[in-house]
Amino acid sequence: MKSNDRNFIKRLKRQEEDALEYVVDHYLPLVKGVVYKVLTPLQQESLLEECMNDVFLSIWENIDQFKGDAIDFRKWVCVIAKYKAIDYYRKAGKSMEVSSEHTGLLVEDSVEEALIQIENHEELLQLINRLDAMDREIFMMKFFLGVKTEDIAARFGLTRAAIDNRIYRGKKKLQQQAMDMKLGGSLV
Amino acid sequence: MKDIYKLLNDVQLDENEFVELEVSDIEKAQMKKQLKQRITKKKKRGNWWGQFAVASLLIGLSGTILGFTFPAQAGSIPIVRDIFKFIDGDRAAFYENYKEFSTAIGLSDESKGIEITMNDAIYDGETMTVTMAIKSKKTLGDQPIFRHTASFKDVDGGTFGLQIKKVDDFNYVGILTAGSFGQASKDMVNFIWKVDKIFIEETNKVINGNWRFAFSIDATEQHTQVVNQSIEQDGVKVTVKQITKTPMSVIVYVKEQIEQQVSEEWDSISLQYSMKDDVGNVYEGESLGGYGEPDDPGVMNTGKTFEKLDERATTLTIVPQLRMLKASANPSEKTESVNALGESVISNATTEVADYKEMTLEPIVIELEK
């Protein structure tokens, strides 16, 4: 049996390789669009390929975490692509020795960068898991997906100030929890 | 705890943000091929023993190498074979034939309790690739960053890349590539490499040391076929000038000419090309960089190294693809950031991608000389 638009998610979950081929055939243009938008300014061809590759591998390895139908799947793919691309961007920026005119692309302010610098995503994730659903989504958008505050505000129908406020309070909460977890003062 | 991929499930991003880009069949095939390699390797490597065996063999290797200074013996230690592939595991196919034609180097230098040993090197007339083993008394973390300078004697400029991979807390392997496209001698190079700082990310610690290497290496055999076939489209001309076959790779030499009108319209134009043959192989490649021509700013001479050709192939198809990018910069905004070595870096402007376009040119089909 071959994968088609009705069964590919099921087949992915069963780790049938042809389902991964189906996903590459149908979602590569989208993944490429997302990854290129973020990483093209770095002008490192190999990074683009590696990142796209990583996106598909993550889909394959984490398909059990996915819930929903083909429409949800499309969204999930976009979000993973964005998450990975930004992760690559940050890592590349970190290891670049020579100053690049593009380094400013995603940098908003140092406190937020510091939050991301928490060595282990796992730890940040543990903390984020303690927030309520809405704050959690705001934090995911802000820190893992690089969404601008204005756009987050639009998404929730709130003002920019309200989002900033929630982020501020959320950060305080995280900071407190980080200290409880003995992560030290790496948040400030 | 919710896994990051589960959390990403709940995030709703603006759909309009996502734009699809054109993808060729070659790109799809290449992606599938690489993914399959990664998946099967993971399956095979699934057992704990596999990793343990590699690790302990490498400990054995770095332990043994101390005692030898004779290149022949260093080179004959079987695990060295794997450094080319081990390091660049996802693209192992690219390094398929490298070990076979490489020369054993067997040079070591120690500083601050960290010993670096050069194992095997190979030079194809454009790129020198050398593998190394690093043994440290204290751990260097998961991904140590080396500050290094590499050069070919009597050659100005070049491109250099270093990849380091952890084997265990005290052992690392690395692969260094160095090239000076179109400038170094095709027959032989004198190579010099220095490392002065190693940065451990986890602890923010910098180790200042002094590791130096110098050796010369003869190029592998090369066979050049003059091609001079062009394709011209929308103000862009791409010429495949020649292809050079070596025992482990094939190097494609390309000249790109971009009309002023096109280059003025975009901030950045980059040319990529993929290569396939008539028996169904898609080749993986690595760009070599390029050089311009002082009299003609629209001209770039570039090169790309691909994995070894299938002997059954009679034609090669090269598909050039252009990526054009317009950036919107905000020059008044300066940003300061700190790089991996704790040095401050000031960048001039914040940049965002304002427009992006891709254009695939007609393929260039080359009849291979037998």
Automatic annotation (TrEMBL), chain A:
Residues 24-93 form the RNA polymerase sigma-70 region domain. GO terms for molecular function: DNA-directed RNA polymerase activity. Residues 122-174 form the RNA polymerase sigma factor 70 region 4 type domain. Keywords: DNA-binding, Nucleotidyltransferase, Sigma factor, Transcription, Transcription regulation, Transferase. InterPro entries: RNA_pol_sigma-70-like (IPR039425), RNA_pol_sigma-70_dom (IPR014284), RNA_pol_sigma70_r2 (IPR007627), RNA_pol_sigma70_r4_t2 (IPR013249), RNA_pol_sigma_r2 (IPR013325), RNA_pol_sigma_r3/r4-like (IPR013324), WH-like_DNA-bd_sf (IPR036388). CDD domains: Sigma70_r4 (cd06171). Pfam families: Sigma70_r2, Sigma70_r4_2. Gene3D superfamilies: 1.10.1740.10, Winged helix-like DNA-binding domain superfamily/Winged helix DNA-binding domain. Its EC number is 2.7.7.6. Belongs to the sigma-70 factor family. ECF subfamily. This is RNA polymerase factor sigma-70.
TrEMBL record, chain B:
Signal peptide: none annotated. Residues 223-332 form the DUF5643 domain. It holds the Pfam family DUF4179. Residues 44-136 form the DUF4179 domain. The chain crosses the membrane at residues 48-70. Keywords: Membrane, Transmembrane, Transmembrane helix. InterPro entries: DUF4179, DUF5643. This is ECF-type sigma factor negative effector.
